[in-house]
Design a protein that fits this description.
The protein has about 950 residues and is mainly beta. The protein contains twelve helices and 42 strands. The strands form nine sheets. It has a 22-stranded antiparallel beta barrel. A five-stranded mixed β-sheet has the order 3-8-9-6-7, with no helix packed on it. A hairpin with a 4-residue loop joins strand 13 and strand 14. The longest helix has 14 residues.
Length: about 950
């Protein structure tokens, strides 16, 4: 721990290392990664693979070994910043409810596991061989109607014709809460003072609705905690730390007949909620995961191979009450310290008419619930070698079945709260709110889905003289049934052809002709054609550079093509009507009832389309020590499903979603790395950056009154609001400033810019707000190995990021009675006219400041940049002299840190930059581990 504390004190040094990658590398071992075409390619066991010289695709590959020790249940959390173009954000720390968002070049990618579409985000971390992101038209072309968002391709570990090995790893750690609020909740006395001030600001009576001098003195002096409570709810409910552990046992090996990989893994992650020893069950949040995988490949004969891949998964999440953890954290946000004591003098739960859900009772006295998620996955294949017909020809058939179910077991109960109303300890009288009930037992199916997948493919590979050709064509069908919904089916054919001449001139063609069953033609199916072409030039293999000693690779490549996104709902092309007739005018006795449209049909519904252009350059220098990769892309999205902005209530029904939207995403991605091994010392450094910008080309918006209100041409998702110009600080500013429509401004209110100079602030003064700069994602991997010791670290950050501060975690007195925070102390008052926060308001009264101050404006937009130390690991390999005595092949001890510290803008005030709105805290974890190979 001393090591980590020292490390946390050198933030500036780490920031320098992230921005200017120093020349470090680790050991250049070799790891075999199998791709979905059954060919084997060897990559150095480093952060990024060396680019494939004969490929023109834009992909990024990460070895599964690099994230195997990341202490998370959902593998996307281990990927943030690791692969160029990929962005992963987590806004909630509750185990199995992390609220993960994944974007690849700005869009949501498809997830493939061993080449088959899956919806699983939790698998055993040790069963991952590699993770590849597919980003351009050539690599995505075979997905066709499902390729528009890119793809994340996970390849699981397979067996090999080698001596059997048995691996065991154990990891035990402690989790600590990252700060999930920008400010500290105020104590009862300061809260009461500010509330009285807000009442005065709103023109309301402090005497009738506020806190009198006796009450203020009680809060200040803490004379009686029952009459003048001051409860720090976070301290009462949350633990400082929680345990986490992972165990893994796997075996791998085989011979010329059978190759196998079998993996068993268990993960246990405890939560941060305190529990009551009086309960014979746990009311804490937490998760358990059990994973089993068996991948077996068989060589049945010289001409026939077969395989069966099985995976089972059981995830169990625990929560107080009926999945009450989110409600508990909302209650913490909404409840001031002086709302009520925890318990009354007679031991009952305290509460009152405004606060009838005692937070401690929510957490410890409302029972518990368990969510069990069960998954079964089976993949089968047969592959025939057709060399007896044509050399290099093969055919393969595979089928897969996937079933996923989550069942909730609810053991909840309700509780009553009591308010002490006469303040007489000798003759106490309590008013009851709610009722106490016995435990209610029930269960339900939260979701259930299943899918079946079939595919038949034929491939050909041949190399003669200077010509090399690889081709594959396939037909497949993917059928998904989600709960009680109708089946969703995607089917069609696809192919890929790769050719190179003398490994210098490269060409690849991908195509798909596929469709889905949500369209009006052909019995519900409509098919589209999605072609892609890529060209490449290995310049370093030309005669004039072939013998250059310092140049190992120089490849220029590019691709262009089309893919799609199926975003339609069932039967939106058919007009339907209300089943129950309704009379709109007059009396139903004299006027016939009418029926109306349920919605407006859109008969021309189709899939969204994307044309992708990618140009890249890869280079390696100095015996592959220095690696450079650069890509520029432009993706144009058309036929996006949107509702016209001209929608009007006077029409009587909403317009349908139509395929009329247009957007464009473009950007630059770069990777720079250095790796070297000298005797027993190895080191590496890899730096990646993704710069992306977007543009809204067409959204069907109405013609605005002023040019600054136009959305077209601005970034996708651009916020619109008022431009704030500080606070009204004196009467002169109030008199000279334009009036605010429907509101009489007060001193301490936010003032806004009058864009059209009509001396009135209204909707015509709203314009794009926030940064229009491109979004920048960065990541840095550093590593060092000296003899038996190894060290690696990974840093991830985001730049040109802005956050909008709103909601109960930032605004004072939510709903008139909510909490207030430390930053509210720097609010506007006549004595503090240079304040950073507007005058306080209770959201009521004749001078309610919320009407003006809570509208969307630049005042609440803040810098959201951050740099985070995602992982750091220090390992030690035991010497061979000890291993021989223990009859072990290898043994390694390690200490691992996750989310150890973050450098953020002043906006966050040391809070977590991803989760700063009071939700379940994200974890900082320090763990010890061991890996043993028999």
């Amino acid at each position: 721990m001393i090591f980590f504390k020292q490390l946390l004190g050198v933030k500036a040094v780490v920031l320098f290392l992230c921005c200017i990658p120093i020349y470090t590398k680790a050991q250049l071992d070799k790891s075999t990664i199998s791709n979905n075409n059954d060919t084997l390619k060897t990559y150095p066991l480093i952060y990024y693979s060396i680019p494939q010289d004969n490929s023109v695709s834009s992909v990024a590959i990460l070895s599964g070994n690099k994230i195997a020790h990341t202490p998370v249940a959902s593998y996307p959390l281990a990927l943030s910043g690791t692969l160029t173009g990929l962005r992963v954000n987590q806004t909630n720390g509750q185990p199995l409810n992390e609220e993960i968002s994944i974007a690849l070049r700005g869009r949501s990618p498809m997830i493939l596991i061993d080449g088959i579409p899956r919806s699983v985000t939790e698998i055993g971390m040790q069963e991952i061989e590699s993770i590849t992101v597919l980003k351009d038209a050539v690599s995505l072309g075979m997905l066709g109607i499902r390729g528009a968002g890119g793809a994340i391709s996970i390849v699981t570990k397979k067996g090999s014709a080698t001596k059997s090995e048995i691996n065991f790893s154990g990891q035990w750690g402690t989790q600590y809460m990252l700060q999930n609020l920008i400010g500290e909740p105020l104590g009862a006395y300061q809260y009461a003072l500010l509330y009285n001030e807000a009442l005065t600001n709103d023109g309301l009576s402090v005497q009738n609705r506020g806190f009198n001098e006796t009450t203020l003195a009680g809060y200040r002096n803490r004379t009686d905690d029952l009459i003048y409570p001051d409860v720090n709810w976070r301290d009462e409910l949350l633990k400082d730390q929680a345990a986490i552990a992972r165990y893994n046992l796997n075996t791998r090996g085989g011979n010329n007949f059978v190759r196998y990989f079998v993996n068993l893994e268990h993960l246990r992650q405890d939560g941060f909620l305190k529990t009551d020893n009086a309960n014979n069950y746990s009311t804490n949040t937490g998760a358990k995961g059990y994973f089993i995988r068996s991948n077996v490949d068989l060589k049945l004969s010289d001409k026939l191979e077969a395989g069966i891949y099985l995976q089972g998964r059981l995830m169990q999440g625990n929560s107080p009450g009926n999945d009450a953890a989110p409600a508990i954290f909302q209650s913490i946000l909404n409840t001031p310290n002086n709302a009520y004591p925890i318990y009354n003098a007679n031991g009952t739960y305290a509460g009152n008419a405004l606060f009838q859900n005692n937070i401690l009772a929510q957490a410890m006295g409302s029972g518990y619930s368990i969510a069990n998620t069960r998954t079964v996955l089976t993949d089968f294949y047969l592959k025939g070698n057709m060399d007896h017909l044509i050399a290099g020809l093969w055919v393969k058939a595979r089928a897969s079945f996937f079933s996923n179910l989550r069942e909730n077991y609810i053991r909840n109960k309700s509780f009553a709260v009591f308010q002490w109303v006469n303040n007489d300890p000798n003759n106490a009288y309590y008013k009851q709110y709610g009722n106490t009930t016995e435990q209610n037992n029930s269960n339900n199916i939260a979701f259930q889905n299943r899918s079946n997948f079939q595919e038949l493919s034929i491939g050909y590979s041949k190399t003669t003289n200077k010509h090399e050709i690889q081709a594959v064509a396939l037909v497949n069908r993917d059928n998904l049934v989600n709960g009680s919904n109708l089946a969703y089916t995607v089917q069609g054919l696809a192919g890929h052809l790769a050719y190179n001449f003398d490994s210098r001139y490269l060409a690849e063609v991908s195509f798909a002709v596929n469709g889905a069953n949500r369209y009006p033609n052909d019995g519900g199916f409509r098919y589209g054609t999605f072609p892609a072409l890529g060209l490449g030039w290995n310049i370093h293999k030309e005669t004039f550079l072939k013998d250059t000693p310092w140049l190992n690779a120089l490849k220029l490549y590019g691709s262009f093509g089309a893919v799609g996104r199926d975003n339609a709902s069932y039967y939106t092309y058919l007009q339907s009507y209300n089943a129950a007739p309704t009379t709109y005018f007059g009396s139903s006795a004299t006027i016939p009832a009418t029926i109306g449209e349920s919605y407006l049909a859109y008969p021309d519904v189709t899939w969204e389309k994307v044309t992708m252009l990618n140009i890249g350059l890869d280079a390696r220098f100095f015996q592959n020590r220095l690696t450079i990769s650069m890509n520029h892309y432009t993706n144009k999205h058309t036929d996006l499903s949107i509702v016209r902005g001209t929608n009007s209530e006077t029409f009587g029904i909403n317009y349908p979603a139509e395929n009329i939207g247009k957007q464009q995403y473009s950007g630059f991605e770069g990777e720079l790395g250095w790796q070297e091994t000298k005797q027993k010392i190895g080191y590496y450094a890899f730096f990646n950056a993704s710069i992306q910008q977007s543009k809204l080309i067409y959204a069907g918006e109405p013609t605005p009154a002023y040019e600054w209100m136009v959305k077209t041409g601005n970034p996708v998702g651009q916020a619109y609001g008022y431009i704030a110009e500080g606070l009204f600080r004196d009467e002169g500013e109030l008199l000279s400033h334009p009036t605010i429509e429907g509101y009489q401004a007060q001193l301490g209110d936010i003032k806004y810019r009058d864009l059209n100079n009509d001396s009135v602030i209204n909707q015509y003064d709203q314009s794009p707000i926030g940064s229009t700069k491109p979004e920048i994602l960065i990541g840095t991997r550093l590593g060092l190995q000296v003899g038996a010791f190894d060290f690696n670290a990974f840093l991830q950050g985001e730049l040109n990021r802005q956050v909008y501060l709103s909601g109960n975690s930032y605004r004072e007195f939510a709903n008139g009675t909510g909490q207030a925070y430390s930053f509210h102390l720097d609010r506007w008052t006549p004595e503090n006219i240079s304040a950073s926060y507007p005058r306080l308001s209770t959201n009521s009264g004749p001078r309610n400041g919320e009407i003006n101050n809570n509208v969307t404006s630049t005042f609440w937009l803040q810098n959201g940049n951050f740099l985070r130390l995602r992982t750091i690991e220090l390992g030690y390999a035991l010497p061979q002299s000890l291993l021989r005595k223990a009859k072990l092949q290898t043994a390694r001890l390690f200490v691992h840190g996750y989310n150890l510290f973050t450098i953020g803008s002043k906006t966050f005030r040391d809070a977590d930059p991803e989760n700063f709105k009071g939700l379940y805290p994200i974890q900082k974890t320090v763990s010890l581990g061991v890996h043993i190979q028999l």
